[in-house]
Design goal:
Layout (H helix, E strand, L loop, with lengths): L1 H44 L6 E4 L4 E7 L3 E7 L2 E6 L3 E4 L15 H17 L3
Antiparallel strand pairs: 1-2, 1-5, 2-3, 3-4
Length: 126
């Protein structure tokens, strides 16, 4: 009986080790995979006609029609193929956010325009 009690306490340490290994596996493998899957689904749902795409097979094309589960893609002039939505690996066309119109295009342009005035004042102090 004394031997059984000793083995029982070692089993809880082993169980803790198994739980920690499973937690590490979840953090290293499963969680990033779920994030990647969510991003892929988001990209596929945000497709629009005219977007440049890359298929899982390595074919580049332009979206011409979008259905519920399939997409029509022009891969060459007058050559259109029908693909499953999940066969799209990447969206090459970048869409700009809607509130980008409110901000200036490039803040450095504004600084460059005002910079010559301050330089001329420095050269001619009086």
């Amino acid at each position: 009986m004394l031997i059984a009690a000793t083995k029982g306490s070692g089993g809880s340490g082993f169980l803790l080790l198994i739980v920690l290994a499973l937690a590490a596996m979840w953090l290293i493998v499963i969680r990033p995979q779920r994030r990647k899957q969510r991003l892929q689904q988001s990209m596929q749902s945000d497709l629009a006609v005219g977007d440049e795409i890359l298929t899982a097979g390595g074919v580049y094309g332009k979206v011409t029609q979008i259905g519920e589960d399939e997409v029509h893609v022009e891969i060459a002039p007058n050559v259109e193929v029908r693909l499953a939505r999940r066969a799209i690996a990447a969206q090459l066309t970048e869409h700009e956010p809607d509130d980008a119109d409110d901000e200036p295009e490039d803040a450095s342009d504004v600084r460059e325009q005002s910079a010559p005035d301050s330089e001329s004042d420095a050269e001619n102090p009086g």
